[in-house]
Design a protein that fits this description.
heterodimer; A: alpha/beta; eight-stranded mixed β-sheet; 12 helices; B: alpha/beta; binds guanosine-5'-triphosphate; binds magnesium ion
Chain lengths: 319, 299
């Protein structure tokens, strides 16, 4: 199955195989194959177009560079295909890489992290995972159950909190905004230094519920607002992330369910439209299945080419 | 090039030459399909069929081409097949990857069937996820349906077995079996769900009568492998497409239906009990390819 998926990109490479130089013409052909591969990986169509334009520009630049080199009597020892793959690979990494640290911590006092996203994307699970992750790092998190909507959402966070030995705050019958507002006092009382707010799933077009998030943001002024995105999401990734970003100014993204075989093109789409990069990856249901996101590892997956990294090394060696 | 559009040239094309659909229409259609998650492969296949299937004099008429696209999509989605048998209890097994809406859909179906005067029993077959049983219990209470559950961490097959027996004894009309979300690539979890199905069959001959796969409309191309692997493991009777109340179009079901021939039965349009509809291919296609897209653009 993976082979079938990887085919598109391999074809791009094959189109160039044996050719010693990138030219305007063979770049066009290869770009068409890359387009297919990225669409298969669920990168949003508009983002694919932007990506291809940038790769084309770089590849053409490379043509010029090689020509200049060639005149100097040097020869390129790598094939056009490898060169092209490297340009794509680097550009994808560029598309996914965020600047600065994954999380911002308050200089003094308590740090806030708000988890937002579509229904079922993995907010509650990721809240518990992040709490555990921070706890291992010496922090003292408090989990706040601010989903008063989905049946047993509070219980779910309570069970998870208990399993990682982290307190969970909730006030039965209260509104999410009120609960979040009162969480800080509770954190102080318990001597906690990070608060993670688990909010209810919602659609970006649900005006009332988006306003609720904006209200929570105003009340608690969290340093971090993380959008939790399912790695299996398709073209909708752009509308969703834009919708959340416009209302809340996202600071980062958690990409969940990467333990499956989804190619995860959303990692490119979301960053391109919001500027907020994927910072954490969910790689299983257990609270320990959580890690910092590494764009390098993800690039091959999105491209649909497992052996790119090895190829890259060869390239680095000859150039 | 000057003669290309000339009368003789056109005449010649009508009688002999192979005429092509206006590339601008094709491009527009491709864009609509790709941005609706129809996927490259299915999009190409559909466009190819349009080219072949259309009469030559329709090829340059944009409305006719769009109408042909809608007709082709409707054809793909209109999969027949036996409707659920009149078993008592009718045992329905709900499966799918994590977070797609299995438990909520069970709550919705239970509401619908209860309102039809049917006696409904629910089986809490998700013994894994935190508070999954409590979630189903909330739905059971809302609907007034009994929930059969096991001890925490119980074997899901044992719960399903027990529930099938109980539903039988209680003279229930329908038993809805909830299961834990599982990624189709996890071999051990797919083995587990196969076993749940076999265990249900041991409790009642011919059960489960319906194995329904829940797909999330926001899912992209991965839905194809989800459906393929769940079908391979369990022989699906139908699909339920959830979360169509958002901006996602769910176009990937075109590929799923085209390749696997499993019909879509219901669609989910929200989180509430009443947000479930029977799937109507023509309506879905209208929402997918409706030409007046101003609404979606404004959103
Ligand atoms: N395989 C896998 N499953 C995950 C991952 N993260 C979350 N899940 C599962 O996805 C499902 C939904 O997760 P939740 O944390 O309940 O999602 P949510 O966003 O809080 O859902 P709502 O509150 O209903 O909007 C659950 O079955 C989780 O166990 C992951 O990284 N991998
Ligand atoms: N907007 C919208 N949300 C839905 C729909 N169906 C389910 N949901 C929401 O999606 C989230 C996940 O639904 P669940 O029913 O818990 O999904 P599940 O497949 O049982 O999840 P796991 O058991 O964790 O694998 C919940 O927040 C539901 O309220 C729908 O049609 N539209
Ligand atoms: Mg939740
Ligand atoms: Mg469930």
């Amino acid at each position: 199955m993976f082979d079938a998926i990887a085919k598109g990109f391999r074809q791009a490479k094959n189109r160039l195989a044996g050719l010693t130089e990138l030219t305007e013409q063979n770049i066009e052909t290869a770009l068409r194959e890359v387009r297919l591969s990225l669409l298969e990986a669920d990168v949003e169509l508009g983002v694919v177009k932007v990506f291809l334009a940038r790769v084309k520009e770089k590849a053409l630049g490379e043509v010029v560079r090689v020509r200049a080199k060639g005149q100097g009597g040097e020869t390129m020892k790598v094939s056009a295909a490898d060169q092209f793959v490297k340009i794509c690979h680097d550009e994808i990494i560029e598309f996914m890489t965020g600047e600065g640290p994954a999380l911002t911590f308050a200089e003094k006092g308590i740090t806030g992290i708000m988890m937002v996203g579509l229904q079922g994307s993995g907010k509650t699970t990721s809240s518990a995972k992040l709490a555990r992750y921070l706890q291992k790092d010496g922090k003292k998190p408090l989990l706040v159950a601010a989903d008063m909507q989905r049946p047993a959402a509070v219980e779910q966070l309570q069970v998870l909190g208990k399993s990682v030995d982290i307190p969970v705050f909730n006030i039965p019958g209260e509104s999410p905004v009120a609960i979040c507002e009162k969480a800080e006092a509770e954190a102080k009382r318990l001597g906690r230094d990070v608060i993670i707010y688990d909010t209810a799933g919602r659609l970006a077009i649900d005006e009332a519920l988006m306003q609720e998030l904006a209200d929570i943001k105003t009340k608690v002024e969290p340093e971090n607002i993380l959008l939790v995105v399912d790695a299996m999401i398709g073209q909708d990734a752009v509308k969703v992330s834009k919708g959340f970003h416009d209302r809340l100014s996202l600071t980062g993204v958690v990409l969940t369910k990467l333990d499956g075989d989804a190619r995860g093109g959303a990692a490119m789409s979301v960053k391109e439209v919001t500027g907020a990069a994927v910072r954490f990856a969910g790689i299983g249901e257990g609270t320990d299945k959580f890690e910092e996101f590494r764009p390098e590892g993800m690039a091959s997956r999105v491209l649909g080419m497992g052996d790119v990294v090895g190829l890259m090394k060869d390239f680095e060696d000859v150039v | 090039a000057a003669t290309r559009g000339g009368f003789m040239a056109r005449l010649k094309a009508i009688f002999t030459g192979k005429k092509e659909i206006d590339p601008a229409i094709l491009e527009q259609m491709e864009e609509v399909m790709l941005t609706s998650d129809v996927g490259v492969k299915t999009t190409q296949a559909i466009l190819e069929r349009l080219r072949e299937g259309m009469a030559k004099n329709e090829l340059s008429d944009a409305d006719a081409v769009w109408a042909a696209l809608r007709a082709e999509a409707t054809r793909i989605l209109s999969i027949g097949g036996p409707r659920p048998a009149k078993e008592k209890p009718l045992v329905v097994l709900m499966v799918g990857v994590n977070g797609v809406g299995k438990t909520t859909t069970i709550g919705k179906l239970a509401t619908k069937w209860s309102a039809d005067g049917k006696k409904v029993v629910l089986a809490a077959g998700d013994t894994f996820r935190a508070a999954a049983v409590q979630q189903l219990e909330v739905w059971g209470k809302r609907v007034g349906a009994e929930v059969v559950k096991g001890k925490e961490g119980a074997d899901p097959g044992a719960v399903a077995f027990e529930a099938t027996k109980k539903a039988n004894e209680a003279g229930a009309d329908v038993l809805l079996v909830d299961t834990a979300g599982r990624l189709h690539t996890k071999v051990n979890l797919m083995e587990e769900i196969k076993k749940v199905k076999r265990t249900i069959a041991k409790a009642m001959d011919g059960a489960p009568h319906e194995t329904l796969l829940v797909l999330d409309a926001t899912t992209g191309q991965n839905a194809l492998t989800q459906a393929a692997l769940f079908k391979e493991a369990l022989e699906l009777n139908g699909l339920i497409l959830t979360k169509l109340d958002g901006t996602a179009k769910g176009g990937v079901v075109l590929g799923v239906c085209d390749e696997l021939k499993v019909p879509v039965r219901y669609i989910g349009l929200g989180e509430r009990a009443e947000d479930l509809r029977e799937f109507v291919a023509a309506d879905f296609v209208e929402a997918l390819f409706g030409k007046d897209d101003g609404e979606a653009e404004a959103a």
